[in-house]
Amino acid sequence: MFSASFLDRAGNWFLESGIQDPTGGVARYYRHDSGENRLISTEITGYAISTYTYLYSLTRNSRYLDAAQRASQFLTRTAWNSRHATFPFEFDPSTRTHDPHTFFFDCGIIVRGLLSFWRIAREQEILDTAVKCAESMAVDFPIPAGASSRHEGFYPILRVDSKKPLETAPHWSKGPGCYQLKSAMAWEELFEETGDDRFRRWYDDALAFSLETHRHFLPGSPDSNRVMDRLHPYCYFLEGLLPHLYRSECAAALRDGLARIGEYLSAIAPQFVRSDVYAQLLRMRLLAETHEVELVDRLTASDEATNLAGFQIASLDQRLDGGYYFGRLGEVWIPHANPVSTAFGLQATVMWEQFRKYQLQMPRQALI
To answer: Is 295 exposed, middle or buried (0-12, 13-18, 19+ CB in 10 A)?
Structure first.
């Protein structure tokens, strides 16, 4: 059993803070300045399922499985739109109404979350929903490339009812890009679970597009704060390479990406830094060595782990204690206790401790 106070506190935050609604859905984040949770996010609920199953793998605490089951049932029985075969962006538990939009990225994260619990529970409802969502991702979201049979990435946002795309906008999450490869990993994982070769082909197409375009993603803006924001999705691209790191072009992209992110992070962090970037970068550094792509610089990784630890919140308030802050502007904490930041932070810290003891052996499917 893995035992560490930071892990106990982070896990307890997921279980006891109220970030998971009684419906089973998980809020986007908790704002401690206003004392309120944001609306339930289907994407964040997917991340939470992956986190609960990861915590269960470390502790064998059945409370994490119970939480994963509640979150899975929320997604398959409340959030899932069977008519349009997709998941809406957000859910308001007070009115029990859904947002009218669906995101490509969110759907892939949800599928990966459902699969993480399906591998334990083997409930057919979970796998069936994951398959239907993944199929609709492949049919509804690709951006046509004129006369070519190739696509130009994926529309980031569609209307649920019409499947019509929204106009793209400057923010990275409202445009296509290499970061969508993290979501496409859901197809590769479904191929592994079902043997359906369509899923592998869809992942391979997304990989080819991402490798062709990723160099243009950074810096992406003359505003250094916006560059920091873009480091987070660029890490998603690196994570999405994991299934094919044996390929020379994927290994080269990972090495190059780690160097670029590290340089930008070091330069921008004094004025604005996100905890998830520290966590994602550290995770991929460690996985790069375990996949024999690049050796870890121990001093750099240790500094990143130390900086990451500083984002975990210590508070007498149960809604905060053990969670991780989203980020910091200068010396001022951004007042969000954030599930994704907490999930990435706890996993990166566990991985670092395991790595230092020569005990890191994590299947890529367990990456939150």
So the answer is: exposed
Q: For residue 259, what are its two tokens?
A: 């160097």
DSSP string, 74-132: IIIIII-BTTTTB--SEEETTTTEE-SEEEHHHHHHHHHHHHHHHHHH--HHHHHHHHH
State which CATH number among 3.40.50.150, 1.50.10.10, 1.10.10.200, 1.10.600.10 fits the domain covering 5-366.
1.50.10.10
Q: At CA 155, angle to CA 237 and CA 234, rounded to 5?
A: 15
Q: For residue 98, list its beta bridge partners.
A: 91
pLDDT tens, position by position, 106-154: 999 999 999 999 999 999 999 999 999 999 999 999 998 764 456 678 9
pLDDT tens track for 206-219: 999 999 999 999 99
Asked whether 238 and 254 are in contact (CB, 8 A), the reply is yes
Give the residue extent of every domain in the chain.
Answer: 5-366
Residues of the chain with pLDDT below 70 are 1-4, 146-151
Q: Which one-letter amino acid corresponds to residue 10? A: A
pLDDT tens, residue by residue, 263-283: 999 999 999 999 999 999 999
